[in-house]
Amino acid sequence: MKFWDREKEKERLKRYLKSEPNSILFVYGPKSSGKSTLLFQVVKELSKRKWFVQKYDMYWYDLRGIMISSYNDVVQLFFESDDKEGQKIIKEAQALFGIPNIASFSVKRTIYDEIKNKELDPFKYMEAVLRKNRKKHVIVFDELQKIKDVYMNGENQRPVVKELFNFFVRLTKVLHLSHVIVMSSDTFFIEEVYIDSTLKNTSRYYLVDYFDDDTAYNILVNEGIEERAAKEIVDKAGGVPWILEEVIESEEPLQVLEELRKESKAKILGYLDEKRIKGEDIEITFKVFEKVLENKALEAQEELLELRRLFEREILFYDPINRVVKFQTRLDELTAKELLKRV
Q1: pTM for this structure?
Q2: For a Cys-Cys bond, which of 31, 254, 267, 341 suits 185, CB 3.0-4.6 Å?
Q3: CATH topology (fold) of 20-207
């Protein structure tokens, strides 16, 4: 995704990375709001500073598109053999991210096998490696919620993600050894973290949302979109980065906007059709739409369950920190308003 200047957001993240490690930072927001792109840009800019390269090592774990269903998958994610293939992976990552100080937990095959066979605690080993290195560290996880259903012992008693959070708290709050940034678009996961008493005083939360209307309009005009078309695009679609990118790259931006409107409508109608086929009541969906549009609280159990389903289908977005529910995009909001007129 193309990066457009986000000075406020960049400065917020830079302040966190410049400070003494003391808390986990959860960066959350709607899907494709630009969270990863923003952090990439921040790290790239800081990596040009000699003090940052000398002071910090980066560990970056992108879980998007990775199938993780077992403890062994997690071990494979964290650890690489110190053979030639392992070193090749690190160099490829350095080139991909444009970050010279990106690192990896490269281990001997014997140690890898001990960790995999649960003869050696992976988190104690990682802590030992980090403490041995004289540098501070930045550990980034993109979409960490993908491992929330993985367990250490296979008996549903020790979730890996809980062990990870204990490890993160020790690295940040106790040892001040590493910054930890967790990015996620799954805000129900963020809510679970937020209400976890063990993380109350150890975590911060930062919302990376879509661009506001004025910023989106200025981006479109600066990229060569005619002013009247830019206003129509913003009025109907708002400041969703990937939508802005699509209309900018097109020779017919308003035609692309219309195609995206149709896709939004098809997405919501498809969801309603699925409910009808299953014999489920679609009135609860319309009731939730009405409440969201009127900015009313969702309180009934059936409403909250429907909210989760609409979130999973990327129709609604839920911000658990600020207690806000809204449509995933303005196109979805306009479609919902259109459908409610027919009810």
Answers
A1: 0.89
A2: 31
A3: Rossmann fold (3.40.50)
